[in-house]
Structures
1.
Amino acid sequence: LVSRKKHPDNTIVTIKKEAVGDGKQRLIAGPCSVESYEQVEEVAKALKAEGIKFLRGGAFKPRTSPYDFQGLGEEGLKILKDVARKYDLAVISEIVSPQHIEMALDYVDVIQIGARNMQNFELLKAAGSVDKPVLLKRGLAATIEEFVNAAEYIHSKGNGNIMLCERGIRTYEKATRNTLDISAVPILKQETHLPVWVDVTHSTGRRDLLLPTAKAALAIGADGVMAEVHPDPAVALSDSAQQMDIPQFKEFVSNLIESGLYK
Ligand code: PEP
Ligand code: MN
C-alpha cells in the first residue's frame, strides 16, 4: 500500500489546512518534553513569529533510564492542545501505548510513533485503525525495508495518512548521537509515496550540526525538518545538550531561508 510502484502519486497529508508532501518544505519544532504551559507557550510564540505551524512536544517520554523524566502524560497533551489552540498551531506528540491512541485523538493533530516503538506492531495497528495522521520515526537499528514495512502495518489497517521520519541510526560512530542516514531520504521518496521528514536533533545530538544537516535534508528532497527548541535548554528535563534556545532557533530559520532551500 505504501509502495510507489503501485501508487505513483505522492501522498499529501493535510494537517489543519497545512499540506505536507506538496513540494513545499515545512518545519516541525518544539521542546523535547512538555514541562509546563509557560514553557510550551514561549516556544509557540516563536513558531508563530516564524510562520511555522507544527508544534511538537513529548508528553509520554520513552527514556533510556527509568529514573529519567518520564513526561507529564495526558496533562502534557492538554497543555499542548491549549497552547496550540491559542496560537492556531497543529500538535504532534508521541504516543507509546496502543491503549492511549483513542485518548490522544482529543489532543493531537498528528500521532508520533517514536524510534523505540517502530516495531511495536500492536501500536502500529492501533494507529492504523484511527483517522489521524501518523508521523512514524525510523527505529534505532531498523533497515529501510523494516521501516517501510512498519508504515505498511499502519496503512494495512486503513490509515493512509502516514509521514516517515529519518532520525538517525546506530552505528559505530560516536561523534554524533546517531548517524543521520541522509540517503534514506531519496530512497524512501523513490520506494514510497509518503512524505519524508528528517529529525536533525535526535540524529545528530549536536546543536552545531542542526543547520548543516537541515540544509542537507532539504537539498536531498526531504519534505520537512524536525528540530527541538526549548526556552532554556540548560534546564531542560530531557535532551538538554541539543535543543536550541529561541534566539538560536530564529537564527536557524533565517539561515535556512537565506540558503534558498526553505521558503
Ligand atoms: C522524540 O522525537 O521526542 C523522540 C524521542 O525521538 P526518537 O523516537 O526519534 O528517539
Ligand atoms: Mn528529544
Note: The domain at 13-259 is CATH 3.20.20.70 (TIM Barrel).
2.
Amino acid sequence: MAEAGETARPAAPNGAAGVAQVSVAAVGVEVLRPAAPDGTARVVLLGRQGSGKGTQADRLSALYGVPHISTGDAFRDAIRNGSQLGRTAQGYVDRGELVPDEVVVGVLRERLFPAGSVGPGSTSGFILDGFPRNIPQAEALADLLAPDGLDVVVNLDVSTDEVLRRIAGRRVCVGCGASYNVVDNPPKAPGVCDACGGRLVQRDDDTEEAIRRRLEIYESVTAPLVDWYREQGVLATVDAAGSPDEVTTRAVAAIEAARQRKPVR
Ligand code: ADP
Ligand code: ZN
C-alpha cells in the first residue's frame, strides 16, 4: 500500500512538533503528516479485535513508507492459496485460537527479512499488526530486531462495547484484504473495494463464537503486553474511539513524539 510519487518534504516551520497538517493523497484524508516518512519507522500496533489496527496500519504504512505486516492477513492469504501454512493455520483461525508461536514467528521472520536481506538486525521500518500477541512472541520479536528494537508500541484503546459494534459492520476485500466498516468507514460503492475493485465480505472468523474467543484470548494473553511494553518505556496509548482520521492523527502524533525522543540510529 506504500504510495508512489510521494517524496519526503521538510516539515512546515509552524507545524506542531515538526508535523505538518496536509492532505495525503494515498490516504485520502486530512491527517497529521510524519516529519520523516523515510521508511525507518518501527511500530507495533496493539489493540483488541475491532480497535481499528488493520485500518490504521494501512494508513500508517502509506504515511511512513514502510510495509504493513499483518500476521492475520498472512494466514488468510495462506488459507486462500491452500498452502501448507494455510492448512496448518486454518483450524486455529476458524476457532479464534492463536496459531502456535513457532509457526507465527516463522511467518514474521519471512516478512521482516524477505529473501535477499541479510538477516536479523538488517530490516528497516515496518508497521506490525497482530504480532506480538503474547509475551513469548514479544521476546521473539525483540531477538529478531536486536540490537535496535522498536520506536514505539501504539496501544489503540477502545471499549469492548464499541469493538462489538464495529466488528458487526466489518467487511474485508477478497482481493487485497483492505478493511471497511459499513457504518464508520464505508467504501465509495457498496460491497466494492475502493483500492482494487474486489468484492467485500464478512470474514469467516467474524462469527459470534470466534469473536468471543478472540476477545477472551486478547484479555488473557495479549493485554499483559501493554504493561510489558510500558515497563520498557516504548508504550503510547491512543484513544481509538472516533473517526479513522481522528485516530490516525493521534497515532501519528504518538509516533512522532516517540521518534523524537529516540536517539538517531
Ligand atoms: P483479529 O485481530 O480480529 O483477531 P487478525 O487478522 O489479527 O484478527 O488474526 C486472525 C487470526 O489469525 C487470529 O484469530 C489467529 O488465529 C491468527 N493469528 C494472527 N496473528 C497471530 C499471532 N501473532 N499469534 C497467533 N495467532 C495469530
Ligand atoms: Zn481490495
Note: The beta strands are 20-24, 29-33, 42-47, 68-70, 126-129, 152-157, 170-173, 179-181, 200-201, 235-239.
